[in-house]
Specification:
Layout: H1 9-29, E1 44-51, E2 62-68, E3 73-78, E4 83-91, E5 93-98, E6 113-117, E7 122-125, E8 132-136, E9 141-148, E10 159-160, E11 167-168, E12 176-178, E13 182-183, E14 186-187
Parallel strand pairs: 1-12
Antiparallel strand pairs: 1-2, 2-9, 3-8, 4-7, 4-9, 5-6, 5-8, 10-11, 13-14
């Protein structure tokens, strides 16, 4: 069942404004993605930054960064009953967005939207709009993600393989690496509040 806090337009507006501001700050702070390069330069790197708890005014959310090396991608995946705000911090990013759930969405009358994202552009993923998306890059990129509510058991991303409804478990994704460490004072899991 979707979280009722997702329907609050004031919460959504507050989060959108905060994400835009945070993305602009990170764009100047992390001028070079070299600071968070994975141990293997061919690996996508996921870096958790902050996890909140739900309050009266804001739903629970998570903030993370993705580094995607040149000529790599984050495969087609969904975010069940979640809202995701993504912002390109540096590099180039080709985005494919699809409404609905599962690979069958390609068969719907709504065609996938494919476009090049701009730096600091706010990309929005909602439970029923743009819920499936894929990120590809030619030169490499750094992406900020804010996800609400956060991931819990039973609310995980599903990755979709080419040509069907085949699930690709996250653990088996090639070139996908979860790294911990410190990035310009943002220790993983400790947040960026200064």
């Amino acid at each position: 069942m979707p979280d009722s806090s997702l329907d609050s337009s004031s919460s959504t507006s507050t989060i959108e404004s905060s994400v835009k501001s945070y993305a602009q700050h990170l764009t100047s702070t992390l001028a070079s993605p070299a600071r968070i390069l994975p141990s293997s330069p061919d690996s996508v790197r996921y870096i958790p930054i902050y996890e909140s708890v739900e309050t009266e005014t804001l739903p629970e959310y998570e903030i993370c960064l993705f580094y995607v090396p040149p000529k790599k991608s984050i495969p087609l995946h969904d975010h069940p009953d979640m809202i995701v705000y993504s912002s390109l911090l540096s590099g180039d990013l080709c985005v494919t967005q699809i409404d609905g759930r599962g690979w069958f969405s390609f068969l719907s009358p709504h065609k996938p939207r494919v476009f090049d994202a701009k730096v600091n552009e706010l990309l929005k993923t909602f439970p029923k709009r743009n819920n499936l998306h894929q990120f590809e890059t030619e030169k490499g990129c750094l992406i900020l993600d804010v996800v609400t509510p956060g991931y819990i058991e039973g609310r995980e991303c599903t990755y979709w393989g080419e040509g069907g409804t085949v699930e690709v478990p996250e653990e088996s994704l090639e070139d996908f690496e979860v790294k911990t460490g410190e990035i310009d004072g943002f220790a993983d899991g400790e947040g960026g509040n200064e």
